[in-house]
Write the structure tokens for this entry.
Amino acid sequence: MSINIESRLARFNDLIPSKVPFVEGKLKGHQDRLNYSLVGPGVSEDSKQNVKIAEEHGFNIGAVSAAPMNGSGLHSHTTAEVFIIFSGSWRFYWGPDGKEGEVILHKGDVASFPTNMFRGFQNVSDQQALMFVVLGENDPGVITWTPSLLKKAKETGMVLLNDNSLIDLEKNQIPDGKKAIEPITDNELTQFDHYTSEEIEKFVIRYADQKNYFLDDEHYNSNSILNYLDDFTIHNKEFKPYISHKTGFGLTLLEGNNAHIHSYTSSKSEVYLCLEGEWEITCNDKKVLIGPRDAFSPPKNSTRSLKNISSDKGSIYIVRQKN
């Protein structure tokens, strides 16, 4: 089976971002951010959001780039949301008022936030920062915003409609047959879960603590494996996850100077997302090179392999469909 490499490749520099992806887009602290969709549309409220790879994978992959002190307001998801930090320092905070707790994450850190809780994030470094986000299921559902955020957004003219589309009342009127979503009630607000900082830390894996997590796959002593979510098998060895969430996808980091995976075939969707180094991926009769921030999705049932071909250590994430 011959494949069209370009249709499976998401080079970060070629991605087209949304500049106003959500209803909060005009609010201070949320204005200077970009939203990217690599695999699937994610939860963007921008109907014109460009999606690089639209094929259903059982999960969605997006990215967020933000200027200092910018990010996302408090929101909740019904499906998994896993953050992978690529640059900068990001503050995550949570609770209906954003004051229940916080964690600061840096490059290489991974956090899996529970569903049914309000969380927000902010770039707290002094330069533009980037992170990737993996969302569960083909349709990750819609975002629930805190009542205060929706009310503040409406004051800027931004309104979310009942079909989850976004409209700027300064430019357009609400179309016939549609209406604005009302903020959730105080009673509905009490139905969301609450967590302490210590509880959320159980779902965070910090790259600085890698010595506590990395394992060798015992294959020529070249592959270090950090498995975050769901079971991961490589070269006939199985790795258990460090995070207990059932997300519908697996997430694993492969790292090493000569890191590689020999040819194998999978009937599940899979995406390689490069953190560091240059990686050669062979997929059936085709080869492709990806570097930092790039991603590649081999077709289901194809035979694929990958190896780090840079002179230094390489790091690459593997996202695997589990449902």
User: Anything to note?
Assistant: The two ends are 25 Å apart (CA to CA). DSSP finds three helices and 27 strands in the chain. The first strand starts at residue 9 and ends at 10. Helices lie at 147-155, 186-189, 197-201.
